[in-house]
Amino acid sequence: MQLKLSAVILSCAGLVACATPEPLRIVTDTSCTAFKAISYAQLPKGQADDPGNKADSDETVKEIDAHNAKWDALCAKR
Known about the structure:
Number of strands: 0
Largest sheet: none
Number of helices: 3
Helix content: 40-55%
Strand content: under 5%
Low-confidence stretches: none
Mean pLDDT: 81
Shape: rod-shaped
């Protein structure tokens, strides 16, 4: 009886000892290196004519400002 119990315990201990833990996965955030703040062209105050359509609309400027604020909050300090 003692021998059988010892054999079972040793067998179980051997199985546990052979278990390989899964390696720790490290995720690297590369978004701050892949993206950057965006620049835009805006007409000077009072100028309405945009020959050649070189200036961005007010809506585009607002969207770019929102993007840049998020970029500043997440990435500028790195």
